């Protein structure tokens, strides 16, 4: 199946964090593509990717980057697709630099920012965005949420017993 989610990152060093988004997409059998597109090191390649994404059939882009994390915002500026930004924590500043670089977008150019290192939620949010127009995915998301609830209730029961 052709990919509907673009899962991109500023460096291959971001992959250990971004992999959790891929796992979430796999769980819902959502086809995606993966790639490294650096806002600073390969700016034209990044812009080409963003501007061609919708035409190639992508429907959501997940973009992760760390430090001066300009990738999600720059991609959002060059596509009409929803962009989910994942702040990748690096060695210094505990990911605060990544978070603030991604979350503080100017009005008119939205990026849906998840928590620092929150790639799993980025994958799940991409599924929800797709599910808005896909009843099958909506059903599976409802089942996923029911499973989450059951997990908590089971733990609660175990604690009380
Ligand atoms: C950012 O610079 C990347 O997203 C990565 O988080 C960070 C460091 O990249 P490398 O020096 O590990 O390639 O653009």
Automatic annotation (TrEMBL):
Keywords for this protein: Isomerase, Lyase, Purine biosynthesis
Biochemical pathway: Purine metabolism; IMP biosynthesis via de novo pathway; 5-amino-1-(5-phospho-D-ribosyl)imidazole-4-carboxylate from 5-amino-1-(5-phospho-D-ribosyl)imidazole (N5-CAIR route): step 2/2
Annotated positions binding substrate: 11, 14, 41
Reactions that this protein is recorded to catalyse: 5-carboxyamino-1-(5-phospho-D-ribosyl)imidazole + H(+) = 5-amino-1-(5-phospho-D-ribosyl)imidazole-4-carboxylate
Domain of life according to the entry: Bacteria
GO MF term list: 5-(carboxyamino)imidazole ribonucleotide mutase activity; lyase activity
One GO process term, biological-process aspect: 'de novo' IMP biosynthetic process
E.C. designation(s): 5.4.99.18
Any Pfam family hit: AIRC
Ranges for domain PurE: 3-152
NCBIfam families listed in its UniProt record: purE
Family as reported in the entry's similarity comment: Belongs to the AIR carboxylase family. Class I subfamily.
PANTHER family according to UniProt: PHOSPHORIBOSYLAMINOIMIDAZOLE CARBOXYLASE, PHOSPHORIBOSYLAMINOIMIDAZOLE CARBOXYLASE CATALYTIC SUBUNIT
Function: Catalyzes the conversion of N5-carboxyaminoimidazole ribonucleotide (N5-CAIR) to 4-carboxy-5-aminoimidazole ribonucleotide (CAIR).
Listed name of the protein: N5-carboxyaminoimidazole ribonucleotide mutase
Species name: Amycolatopsis suaedae
């Amino acid at each position: 199946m052709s990919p509907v989610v673009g899962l991109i990152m500023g460096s291959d060093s971001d992959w250990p964090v971004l992999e959790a988004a891929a796992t979430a997409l796999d769980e819902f059998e959502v086809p995606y593509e993966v790639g490294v597109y650096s806002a600073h090191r390969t700016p034209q390649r990044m812009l080409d990717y963003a501007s061609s994404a919708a035409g190639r059939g992508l429907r959501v882009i997940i973009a992760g980057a760390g430090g001066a994390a300009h990738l999600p915002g720059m991609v959002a500026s060059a596509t009409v697709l929803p962009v989910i930004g994942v702040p990748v924590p690096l060695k210094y500043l505990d990911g605060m630099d990544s978070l603030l670089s991604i979350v503080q977008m100017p009005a008119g150019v939205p990026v849906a920012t998840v928590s620092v290192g929150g790639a799993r939620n980025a994958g799940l949010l991409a599924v929800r965005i797709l599910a808005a127009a896909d009843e099958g995915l909506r059903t599976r998301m409802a089942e996923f949420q029911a499973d989450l609830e059951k997990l908590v209730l089971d733990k609660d029961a175990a604690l009380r017993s």
